[in-house]
From TrEMBL:
This is DUF4232 domain-containing protein. It comes from the Bacteria. It comes from Streptomyces xanthochromogenes. Residues 1-22 form the signal peptide. Residues 33-80 have a biased composition (Low complexity). Residues 30-83 are annotated as: Disordered. The keyword Signal applies. Keywords: Signal.
């Protein structure tokens, strides 16, 4: 039987109200998820982060504790006193609130097992995300017991800046692969992705997105770090090797 494919709608449009808990709003930040196979590099995203944003290598370094939280003792190299609301130093000192961010999860056109989590700063100033990657859980829709949700592997060896800077109007991306080994098969009743943009946020800010009907969910899905392009987010995802948290 032919598998029905669809694209998960973006979380918010400019005319929408504040983020709804069900995350059913459309178009966040205008970024488009570039196709990416498991063994080939994705092209650059065409959304706000593709122009005028930090370099692809910006963000956490390769040293430090293996946690999802940027090292609080580390600081940026900028001498910005905080008066410039567009710089990294300002973002490090002004962490994002849930109301500043538009969140979406969209399946890649080329692979029903890969999803792009896009977080857009819809405010007027830069802000910082205090964790290197979004908190993601996979489980059955409307499940009363979430204790058996699957949490993806993330890259190890994290360390660096005290926050991920997100400039006003720009987007950062994290890619989730629910079948990194290419096993193919079923989803075992798992049909929903729950996403929290920053680990500081309360569970009330968790957004849930229906999974593509053709997706396969394995025991150890992979999630990459926040990056400025979808291509770099895919590369980061492939290096995931430890349990989150």
């Amino acid at each position: 039987m032919a598998v029905r494919r669809h694209t998960i709608p973006l979380a918010l449009v400019a005319a929408a109200a504040s983020l709804a808990l069900t995350a059913c709003d459309g178009g966040a930040g205008g970024g488009s998820a570039a196709p990416s196979g498991k063994d080939s590099s994705a092209s650059h995203a065409t959304g706000p982060a593709g122009k005028g944003s930090p370099s692809a290598g910006a963000g956490p370094g390769a040293s430090g504790a293996s946690t999802g939280r940027p090292a609080s003792s580390a600081g940026g190299t900028s001498t910005d006193s905080g008066r410039d609301a567009s710089g990294d130093a300002y973002a490090y000192k002004h962490l994002c609130t849930a109301g500043q961010l538009a969140l979406s999860a969209q399946v890649l056109d080329s692979d029903p097992d890969q999803y792009v989590v896009a977080v857009t700063n819809r405010g007027q100033a830069a802000c910082g995300i205090s964790s290197y990657y979004p908190l993601v859980a996979l489980g059955p829709k409307n499940a009363a017991d979430r204790s058996k949700s699957i949490h993806p592997l993330v890259p190890s060896g994290l360390g660096g800046a005290p926050a991920i800077p997100v400039y006003a109007g720009h987007t950062v991306y994290a890619v989730l692969d629910t079948d990194p080994g290419g096993a193919k098969g079923g989803n075992g009743g798992i049909d929903e992705i729950s996403v929290l943009a920053d680990e500081r946020f309360p569970n009330a800010e968790m957004h849930s997105f229906p999974m593509d009907e053709g997706a396969t969910v394995t025991r150890h899905p992979k999630l990459g770090l926040y990056r400025d392009t979808v291509r770099d987010a895919v590369t980061s995802m492939r290096s995931a090797d430890i349990a989150a948290g």
